[in-house]
TrEMBL record:
Residues 380-400 have a biased composition (Low complexity). Keywords: Acyltransferase, Membrane, Transferase, Transmembrane, Transmembrane helix. GO terms for molecular function: acyltransferase activity, transferring groups other than amino-acyl groups. The keyword Acyltransferase applies. This is Acyltransferase mdmB. Signal peptide: none annotated. Residues 360-421 are annotated as: Disordered. Its EC number is 2.3.1.-. Coiled coil: none annotated. It holds the Pfam family Acyl_transf_3. It comes from Micromonospora lupini str. Lupac 08.
Length: 421
């Protein structure tokens, strides 16, 4: 993967080409997180059944790593020239805060029902999405446990408009250096954790927003390289095979300080290959209508799943005891379906209408594709000239651009591929 020139490229025209495969992949990442939590909650008591869950989802927590890399990639990919920082921040707040506020209120309601103590200061931190900055044990997991990742995302959103001009002007050699350096910095977090008190080491490597931003910037830099037509990663089949081999190997034999770095690279290869497949019109198993819908509700699914599972298990008296025999897997499947229904409702009646109401509208514009280098006839990103012409004609015919709709007809302000989950 090398560039042919070291001169800074002109700022690339952002793309609004549809990337439905990334939406479908978001659901796979959400499912990994769900499976990990189902395993750690010990819902399945039967050893043989639990062994299957553990084997499949032991690294499921890394699904959040995928979300962070994806977030950096799609936000740079979809950035438009001349857009104001306030418009960007307003759009991001409109996307994440309505769902966050609903789950914040629901979690407080559950705490009241079970008579759980709630620290007012921790609640305020969570409400303002500042909890990831607090290293005190339990505080960064306060109220709705999984919202710590939104606290990190909020930090990423704040930084991106400030850093994007520098990214656009960076020389290709700088971008390639970052692609190599960022995974190494992720690896360096593990020895660096010894610089903080032992009680804060998990927070430092897994929660601290600047540390987790390394994954976000990895995706952002890869998107910039793709927009310039410089990315030369494997295609989707090869990237998927690399990911599967990495996952299996890491789950069985590789220590955590290594697999976090290896999976970051594997996730990046899958994300870039899936985007390449969509832009160039090659086949992708991730852009089917069911998967696209699942990806669209994955953000809501992520936010509700832990609260639902813990609340039901506590209410039924089965918290920490597990279910014997076939009932364990059946309960996990039931939780999956219930969370999907709730996520669909949240997406339909909160997330989508609030995005329409609160987010600034974007003007329609025909899609563009990443620039090809001189002499390229089939770059890893741009696809064929015929595909670019077809996209442009589709826009000129009046089809509103979507982020990842896969033909859903959603307009830009309603689409979801440019978001974390």
């Amino acid at each position: 993967m090398t560039s042919t020139t070291d001169a800074p490229a002109a700022p690339p025209a952002p793309t609004v080409a549809r990337l439905p495969s990334l939406t479908g992949l978001r659901w796979i990442a959400a499912l990994l997180v769900f499976g990990f939590h189902a395993g750690t909650m010990r819902i399945i008591a039967e050893p043989d059944y639990k062994a299957v869950i553990d084997a499949l989802f032991t690294l499921g927590l890394s699904g959040v790593q995928f979300f962070f890399i994806l977030s950096g990639f799609v936000l740079v990919w979809s950035a438009r020239p001349g857009g104001s920082r306030l418009t960007f921040w307003r759009r991001r707040i409109a996307k994440i805060y309505p769902n966050h506020l609903v789950l914040f209120a629901a979690t407080l309601g559950v705490a009241w029902w079970f008579a759980d103590p709630v620290l007012p200061a921790a609640a305020v931190e969570n409400l303002l999405l500042l909890q990831a900055w607090d290293p005190r044990p339990g505080w960064f997991y306060s109220i709705n446990t999984v919202s710590w990742s939104l606290s990190c995302e909020f930090f990423f959103y704040l930084c991106l408009p400030l850093a994007l001009p520098l990214l656009r002007r960076a020389r290709p050699s700088v971008l390639w250096t970052l692609i190599i350096a960022l995974p190494l910095l992720i690896l360096a977090l593990w020895p660096a954790q010894h610089l903080v008190p032992e009680v804060s080491r998990w927070w430092f490597t897994q929660i601290f927003p600047p540390a987790r931003s390394l994954e976000f910037w990895l995706g952002a830099v890869a998107a910039e390289l793709m927009l310039r037509g410089l990315w030369r990663g494997p295609r989707l089949t090869a990237a998927t095979a690399i990911f599967v081999v990495t996952w299996v190997t890491a789950a069985q034999w590789i220590p955590a300080q290594w697999w976090t770095t290896l999976l970051a690279v594997a996730y990046l290869l899958v994300i870039t290959a899936a985007a390449d497949a969509d832009v160039s019109g090659r086949r992708s198993p991730w852009r089917s209508r069911p998967l696209v819908w699942l990806g669209e509700v994955s953000f809501a699914f992520y936010l509700v799943h832990v609260l639902v599972m813990t609340s039901v298990l506590r209410y039924s008296g089965d918290w920490g005891t597990g279910f014997r025999g076939w009932r364990g897997p059946a309960v996990v499947l039931g939780f999956l379906l219930v969370n999907l229904v709730l996520a669909g409702l949240l997406h339909r009646f909160v997330e989508t209408p609030m995005m329409r109401r609160l987010a600034p509208r974007r003007p329609r514009r025909p899609p563009v594709v990443p620039r090809q280098r001189a002499g390229d006839t089939d770059t890893a990103v741009g696809g064929s000239a015929q595909a670019a012409v077809a996209d442009a004609r589709g826009a000129e015919a009046g089809s509103a651009p979507t982020d990842a709709g896969g033909g859903s007809g959603r307009t830009d302000e309603r689409s979801s591929y440019v978001d974390l989950r």
